[in-house]
Amino acid sequence: MTAPVVVTTRAQLDQHLAPARRAGERVALVPTMGALHEGHASLLRVAREHVGDGPVVVSIFVNPTQFGAGEDLDRYPRTLAADLELCEKEGVDVVLHPEVAEMYPHGTGSDDGVMVRPGPLAKELEGRTRKGHFRGVLTVVAKLFGTVRPDVAVFGQKDYQQLVLVRRMVEDLCLGVEVVGAPTQREPDGLALSSRNAYLDPEQRQQATALSRTLYAAVEAAEYGPGPALDAARAVLRESDGVDLDYLELRTPTLGPLPDDVPPGTEARILVAARVGSTRLIDNLPITLGTDPS
Ligand code: AMP
Fold it and tell me: Which residues are near ligand 1 (CB < 6 Å)?
C-alpha cells in the first residue's frame, strides 16, 4: 500500500485530483473528524466499492461550528498519525486536513459568514440539546462538497439524523452528490463504535452497552407494535445504572412522526441518546413494526 497524499488546501487537492477528473473517474469523499476507528474504515471500504479505481478522499477536520458552548471541541481526540496509518491500510488516495482558516476564511462565529439553515428537523432529537449543531454540520459538509466536488459521499447510519439532513440538503440545494449511508459498526457487546467512547472509564464503558441493548430489546418486541417495542426498550433503561436518558424515539425512516396506526410491516427507525458520566452517546437501528395488540 502507498501512503495517502496529505493536503491542506483546495489548490493542492485540485492538483492531485486533476488526472483522475481528466480520466473521467468518479471521486468519493468520506468526511470525518479524525480519531478514526473500524466504523470509519468500513465507510472507506464502501467508498472504494463506489468508485473502483477512482480516488477516495478522506477529510479529517474537527469542525468548530458544530460544537456548542461547553461541548468537547477542545478535548475531542486528535490522533493524526494513527489516522494516516488506517487510511494507508484502507487504500485511501488523498487525506484533506485543512486548517480552520482554510475552511472558514471569514471566521467561525454564527454571523461571520454564509451558513446553511438546516430546516425544522434540525431542532428535533439531537437538535433539542445541541442547538446550532446541524447548522454547523451542514455548513461544513457543503464546504467539503464544494472543495472536493465528489460524485459520491459516504456517511454512517450511526449519526442517522445527520445522514437524513445531509440527504435533504443535497436535494433542497441541488448539490448533485450521491449520498450513501453505511451501516453502524459495533463492538462485540453491541456498543456502537465512536471516537467519544475513548472518554469512558471501564465502569462507564460497561454501562454504555445499555444504549444498544435498549434498541435491540425494542427490535425484538417490534412484531407486537410500537407500544410494546417502546415498553421493552424502557424496561432495559430502567434497569441500567449510570445512564441518563435524553431521548428514546420511534420515527419514520426519514425521521418524520409515525402515524398513530401503523400497518404491520411498517419500516421505522428507533433512536436513543443518553449521557454516561459526562459523555453523550447516540445510537439507532432500523425496526420493522407489527400491529399493536391493544
Ligand atoms: P465522525 O468522525 O465521528 O464525525 O464520523 C465520521 C463519519 O463516520 C460519520 O459519517 C459517522 O456517521 C461515521 N461513523 C461514526 N461511527 C461509526 C460507526 N460505528 N459505524 C459506521 N460509521 C460510523
Answer: 32-33, 39-40, 42-43, 155-156, 158-159, 182, 184-185, 192-195
CA neighbor of 252 nearest in space, from 97, 107, 117, 124: 124
Q: Tell me the CA distances in angstroms from 195 to 37, 83, 180, 288, one per residue in order.
A: 7, 12, 21, 29
Dihedral angle over CA of 279, 192, 117, 248, nearest 10? -80
Q: Which residue has the cell 401503523?
A: 262
* Cα 34 to ligand 1 centroid, rounded to whole Å: 10
pLDDT tens for 108-158 read 998 899 999 999 999 999 999 999 999 999 999 999 999 999 999 999 999
Provide the edge-to-edge strand list for the sheet that holds 56-60. 5-7, 94-96, 56-60, 28-32, 152-156, 178-182
Does residue 190 come out as left (phi exceeding 0), alpha (psi in the -120 to 50 range) or beta? left
**Residue, of 211 and 261, whose pLDDT is higher:** 211
> Which residues are identified as catalytic?
40
Confidence of residue 291 (pLDDT cuts 50, 70, 90): confident
How far apart (Å, rounded) are the C-alpha atoms in residues 9 and 13?
A: 6
